[in-house]
From TrEMBL:
Cofactor: [4Fe-4S] cluster
Name under which the protein is recorded: tRNA-2-methylthio-N(6)-dimethylallyladenosine synthase
UniProt GO molecular function: 4 iron, 4 sulfur cluster binding; metal ion binding; tRNA-2-methylthio-N(6)-dimethylallyladenosine(37) synthase activity
UniProt similarity note: Belongs to the methylthiotransferase family. MiaB subfamily.
Gene from which the chain derives: miaB
Domain of life of the source: Bacteria
Source species taxonomy: Bacteria, Bacillati, Bacillota, Clostridia, Lachnospirales
CDD domains: Radical_SAM
UniProt subcellular location: Cytoplasm
Purpose: Catalyzes the methylthiolation of N6-(dimethylallyl)adenosine (i(6)A), leading to the formation of 2-methylthio-N6-(dimethylallyl)adenosine (ms(2)i(6)A) at position 37 in tRNAs that read codons beginning with uridine.
Known catalytic reactions: N(6)-dimethylallyladenosine(37) in tRNA + (sulfur carrier)-SH + AH2 + 2 S-adenosyl-L-methionine = 2-methylsulfanyl-N(6)-dimethylallyladenosine(37) in tRNA + (sulfur carrier)-H + 5'-deoxyadenosine + L-methionine + A + S-adenosyl-L-homocysteine + 2 H(+)
Amino acid sequence: MERQRTTALPAEAELARQMEYIREIRQENDRYFAETGKHKKFYSLAMGCQMNAHDSEKLEGMLDEMGYERTQEETEADFIIYNTCCVRENAELKVYGKLGWLKHYKKQNPNAVVALCGCMMQQDTVLETIRQKYRHVDLVFGTFNLYKLPELMKTREESGCTVFDIWQENQEVVEDLPSIRHFPYKASVNIMFGCNNFCSYCVVPYVRGRERSRTPEDILAEVRKLAADGVKEVMLLGQNVNSYGKNLENPVSFAELLRMVNEVEGIERIRFMTSHPKDMSDELILAMKECDKVCKNLHLPFQSGSTEILKKMNRHYTKEGYLELVRKVREAMPEITLSTDIIVGFPGETEEDFQETLDVIRKARYCTAFTFIYSKRTGTPAAKMENQVPEDVVKDRFDRMLQVLNPIVHEVTEEQVGKVLPVLVEEVSKHDENILTGRTEQNTLVHFSGSKDLIGQIVPVKIIENKTFYVIGERI
Ligand code: 5AD
Ligand code: SF4
């Protein structure tokens, strides 16, 4: 038997209701602790993008409030939650692999609860597969009702049935959920949800719905609260931040929002992602340039260098238009570094199209690039296109792309060597407790030796050695 779909109350009432469930579960967990001397443990895994990572911070915050303790060991967890991604097929395969393993785990630990949420769960075919093949899953919910975790856990406990609660939309944003930040000194802030762009390869608009922007008041209140809590760097998150604010009752542009966040006392660095080139306005370039706290580092996915392919991708810009944008951005901010997303092997991509992609890489000179092999996603227009490129051809292009890209990344990083740059110290290296890691404004990862008291501070570091994907520095 399954329990399904509930509806939303207004956001504030929803929060109050969920907090009530959290209190009930906490009481049960406190009793468990009193009886056994042990805390119940949760294991949480966020797959995919920063949006999912940030959503998981909220799930983890709620579990923490319920009295669960976090564990990094899946094999000792009483509650396991995977926040799934479906942008590419390999992310989905990973989840099915984990579910196979969990079948055994649940046999040995029948009281363990397994929850699946996030983008992948918004697809009917996935739900069908779970219903038929993975009956040991206890809780399934999607991207629109994440805040309902406490209630769904309670429903599961009381009914003993698998709970499926998938919504197709939700305009309400439940503010002020408890949250555990992955870093104390930097935080992500959602400024909008969903996407209206329907790039022909991409499943995101189908699983995260239409664009909804949070009001500047709510965003600023969150940023101020974070600043009061010691956060120095905020990352403003949205699938396409450049179209922020268009659907608000009183429309506000992303450039205006940046200027407002720039005024928040205590915040020292502002980053944002992702920018769609078609919506990157002159107003935004000027705001980036003029706001002293906005990091001079821009993630500007181009996906393909071929105008022909960009058209089939429904991206609404040309190769020349993109390169002109890069020129304008660099002219305004000569110190800026750029990163990007690239897809190789989109249907119909010829060797000539691929060469155009290499040309953009050479001309735009990225400090980092996220490179992807095209993955066919059911339900997207690209999945039905003819001339899907054979796997061996795509693999060969992918390798050739890295051969062009990596030396450029090395050269761009080299430009930092010899400079003294402010670094926000993030954490102690996982491999050596005397080494700290942090990031420059340009988002270069820096390793340098120093005391862990520096974590959370912005300190000057001289860059002395280029390791391509990170640099070695020296505290001065
Ligand atoms: N195949 C490969 N890469 C994809 N991306 C989105 N959809 C697909 C797909 N079907 C990439 C894009 C996007 C990033 C988040 O993921 O490059 O910018
Ligand atoms: Fe996907 Fe395009 Fe929206 Fe990015 S802008 S989430 S690639 S549809």
